[in-house]
Design brief:
The chain has about 280 residues and is mainly alpha-helical. The chain contains 11 helices and 4 strands; from the N terminus they run αααβαβαααααββαα. A two-stranded antiparallel ribbon has the order 1-2. A two-stranded antiparallel sheet has the order 3-4. The two termini are about 35 Å apart. Bound molecules: zinc ion. Zinc ion (ZN) binds next to helix 3 and helix 6.
Length: about 280
């Protein structure tokens, strides 16, 4: 039992030391992804049950790619200690495109186009699956598309741009094959290799060091992410609100836009199947 307690303590300390890796997907029910998804899905007329199913699908890329199954580590007692089954840990299954991240050395415009096209592929797959009444696969694909879309707002400089340059960038968010404008900046992904080479994230910095780095125009994760209102960028205020809140609101608006794009492309009866989907 003592060993278990020590292990649990070490895991908690480790988890707390990790930077956030996108809008949070944890704990289920009260995180940024869940809030954004619920607001957009309710606007699209999804039932409570369908909203819950879609929320789980949106959380999936984070949970599958960046977490460890506690059942493998400590069995039932461990699960009770954490009141969860999952713990954050960047994993080897991490794929930056699913989170609108950029690889080291990769130009932002290249990463943007690749992540955008992956997101649109998932959206189109949702349309295709819903058109043959395969609701389960349609929701899975919608979850992938919405996750990436939501992460785009927390991993890019979209909220930092003035209205005109932001509109220019958002216009090509749904235009496959169109090159990103030069103002597009995407954050560097947290995990760049498998296994991660040295440590797991970027080196720890003081706030002053971080501000200096970011003022110099760095496109590191630290300098771009608005994952939470405690991140360096996320807590900055613009027009009286945090950039985290601004990113979350834009992500909500665009999640609703993507759902509307799907609705327009499927038969009314198939859309109703999605609206009334019940978690299996
Ligand atoms: Zn993510």
């Amino acid at each position: 039992m003592r060993a278990l307690t020590l292990l649990a303590g070490a895991l908690v300390a480790f988890a707390a030391s990790l930077p956030t890796l996108g809008f949070e997907s944890f704990p289920p029910g009260g995180n940024a992804h869940d809030t954004i998804t619920a607001r957009a899905a309710r606007r699209a007329g999804l039932s409570r049950s369908a909203v819950r199913w879609l929320q789980a699908a949106v959380r999936r890329p984070d949970l599958e790619q960046m977490s460890v199954d506690l059942t493998l580590l400590g069995g039932r007692r461990m699960l009770r200690a954490f009141r969860t089954e999952q713990l954050w840990m960047p994993g080897c299954r991490y794929d930056r495109l699913d989170h609108f991240d950029r690889a080291a050395g990769e130009p932002s415009a290249v990463a943007f186009a690749a992540a955008r096209d992956r997101m649109l592929d998932a959206r189109d797959r949702a349309v295709e699956r819903l058109s043959v009444q395969d609701v389960e696969e349609a929701i899975r694909a919608l979850g992938d598309a919405l996750h990436a879309l939501q992460d785009f707002f927390s991993h890019s400089n979209a909220v930092d741009l003035d209205a005109e340059r932001r509109a220019e960038l958002l216009q090509i968010l749904y235009a496959r094959g169109v090159a990103a404008p030069p103002q597009a900046k995407l954050a560097l992904g947290i995990v760049e290799a498998c296994p991660p080479p040295r440590g797991l994230g970027e080196p720890a910095r003081t706030l002053a060091e971080a501000v200096e780095l970011c003022d110099a125009g760095s496109e590191s994760h630290l300098c771009l992410n608005k994952d939470s209102d405690t991140s360096v960028q996320g807590r900055l205020k613009s027009n009286g609100r945090s950039k985290y809140a601004a990113a979350r609101d834009l992500a909500t608006e665009h999640s609703a836009i993507l759902l509307e794009q799907v609705r327009r492309r499927v038969a009314k009866s198939d859309w109703v199947l999605l609206q009334q989907a019940r978690l299996p």
